[in-house]
Amino acid sequence: MSYSLLRPLLFALDAETAHHLTLTSLNTLQRTGLAAIVAPRPAACPRKVMGIDFPNPVGLAAGLDKNGAFIDALAALGFGFIEVGTVTPRPQPGNPRPRLFRVREAQAVINRMGFNNDGVDRLVDNVRRARYRGVLGINIGKNFDTPIERAVDDYLACLRKVYALASYVTVNISSPNTRNLRQLQDATELEKLLGALKAEQRALTGRHGRYVPLALKIAPDLDATQVDAIAGLLQKHAIDAVIATNTTIGREGVAGLAHAEETGGLSGAPVKAKSTAVIRALHQKLDGVLPIIGVGGIMSGADAREKIDAGASLVQIYTGLIYQGPDLIKEALQALCVKPTQI
């Protein structure tokens, strides 16, 4: 059945209920071997980024599968890489429901989930059970009740637990739904965090005999001075990539629409321009020293192309899937691959 036919049924449900129903249904399709019919696997369109061979440049952004419970099902959709999480050291319920809202007229979503997850140990168990052997990013964060001055401890605890299983690890300091988290983007705090993570990465490389790249995920709500400072620290500490961007606290493009005033991060079409502007600024500042993964407002193949043209090496999608379904993956690949007729 076409996603365009399913979407009205899903949109008749509460957004979080629809989220869980979609994942469980996809899981069923994958287990019965029908997922490939819904979303045939695209031809290879390889990229080498962070020293990793990606089969294609279109990935799934973190947030859809917080606990790594649906990796095999999501892999069947044809992503070149999958990022799971955000995961925290201890399980936490997140913010009270309702906490996920569609802004339909703007093709947007507002969420204040609050890093709801079952904890890093559960995620590790799920990853070990998965059959997927493709590129897997694991996105790590801090527990809501960990004081910001001890945030480094939470990131280090997660890094140690996921290191052996991840293709790369993303450090999420940019969600607007954990109190004070974005404070970690300030130069002094970020200097401390990146220094500790890089030292631990070196230790873990020796312990496990493999180098797992680190990526930093940043917000779109940064001014030019902040972007420059972050770019400088990424280079200073030899961080392997930057993911631009997370959701925005701004409400440009949705003002006056239903749910627009809900607290939380805004994703989807309205964040596209902000995200692309940050990518472009980072690209100019970094000058190819480290790669950028572009995410934010990709609702079409043209949007994916725009991120690459701005300086991204790879792209990730999430909210676009809610509005466009799995066909968005194919459309993005058609826009990005040299021989789209092979898809």
Description:
It is a single chain. Helix content is 39%, strand content 16%. It has twelve helices and 13 strands. It has one domain (3-336): TIM Barrel (Alpha-Beta Barrel), CATH 3.20.20. Helix 8 (224-236) packs across helix 9. The longest helix is centred in the middle third of the chain and has 22 residues, at 187-208. The strands form three sheets. The protein has an eight-stranded parallel beta barrel, surrounded by five helices. It is globular and about 50 Å long. It has helices at residues 3-11, 15-31, 35-38, 71-75, 120-129, 151-162, 187-208, 224-236, 272-286, 301-310, 319-324, 327-336; strands spanning 47-49, 52-54, 58-60, 81-87, 100-103, 108-111, 135-140, 168-172, 214-218, 241-244, 265-268, 292-295, 314-317. The chain is α/β, with parallel strands linked by helices.
